[in-house]
TrEMBL record:
Residues 1-11 have a biased composition (Basic and acidic residues). It comes from the Archaea. This is Uncharacterized protein. Residues 1-31 are annotated as: Disordered.
Length: 110
């Protein structure tokens, strides 16, 4: 199975074409890290980003859910999302703002 944009649900973008994936909790996860990813953390992180209206997220080959959040959102919304993601996974990292988006990464591995 390879990852490709899927119109029925946001979040299935972000990986280059040809990356082999395995579904974990209904989300394509790169096969290289699928055995290390915590399915409960995937479900919780996806629920958090969807609840906050984030439409672009993916799981990286290192086992982190990455998302891009519009930098014009109010700070309280960004803090709320960051707190929800921190509770969902095994730590959240803020990679700053680039091209109008705040980049967040949630570790999904245990």
């Amino acid at each position: 199975m390879t990852d490709s944009p899927d119109g029925d649900r946001p979040g299935r973008t972000g990986l280059p074409d040809g990356v082999e994936t395995t579904p974990v909790a209904g989300i394509p996860v790169p096969t290289t890290c699928a055995d290390r990813v915590d399915p409960a953390a995937v479900r919780a992180a996806v629920a958090a980003v969807e609840e906050h209206g984030v439409r672009e997220f993916w799981v990286s080959p290192s086992g982190g859910l990455k998302c891009r959040v519009g930098s014009r959102r109010p700070d309280r919304v960004q803090r709320s999302l960051r707190d929800a993601l921190a509770a969902a996974g095994h730590g959240v990292t803020d990679h700053g703002v680039r091209r109008g988006f705040r980049r967040l990464r949630v570790d999904l591995t245990d």
